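Team,

Forwarding the record for the chain on the shared tracking sheet. I've put the sequence and predicted structure together so nobody has to dig through attachments.
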Amino acid sequence: MEIIWSQRAVRQLEAITCCIACDAPQRATVFVDRIIHATTQLARHPNSGKKMRQLSPLRQLVIQKYRIVYRVRKTVEIIAVLGPRQQRGR
């Protein structure tokens, strides 16, 4: 199954990576590698993420303290990458 990243998700991943890289460039590289690896696995196991709500089509993967929000249709669409600050109040 094909993985498609929304522009929003790409921007969010870039912003999170830049924040991490300010303090620890190597940690930022490892973080991106983990996110890419996890989303690549969705091509073979698209329903492996936890459903966000009972009737919602959205699913999520949690990598460390970050959430990858996606939906499965004919493709897997990565909708958002949320850091801990973005998750408050959700």
